[in-house]
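Suppose you are handed a protein chain with no further information: no name, no annotation, nothing but its sequence. What can you learn? This example shows the usual starting point.
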Amino acid sequence: MKRTALVLATALALAGPPAAAVAAPATTPSVGASAPTAAGQASGTAAGPAAVTSGCGPAVMMINRLNSVCVTVDGTSVSVYGSSAQLIPGPGRSFLYTVSLAVVGGAGLGTRSGSTYLGAGTGYVSGPKAEAPCGSTVRASFSLTDFGTPPPASTVDVPVTC
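A reasonable first move is to predict its three-dimensional structure. Written in structure tokens, the prediction is:
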């Protein structure tokens, strides 16, 4: 019972504020990269600042990891990444991942999948970057699987405002 309470408390602490209050970074990290930074944020054009919209999906738990997907929309440019935080300290291991991006009710904009090693702490997996039409909504998802375990996915919809 104590272990379950510890895992739940850790998951809630790592989940942080609700998804609407979480700002995603402007850059997309590489597989297994360090925490993303806001460096490289678009500064806008002479006509005015670029419309940057960010959103992160709900955190989903898979075995000993808490996974979430985040999207950044800058004008019509869209980038997505997944993050995975280890809940209970221990050795890292390899996982299969899928990060996908699509226009809601429309075409897919890309998928990245593969295998990655995630160690202790939080790891990041970069997803596709694409252009989306103004006024549309993009849907991103991130799933991580432990070689055979059905993967839960974190999904988020973000509007493309130009």
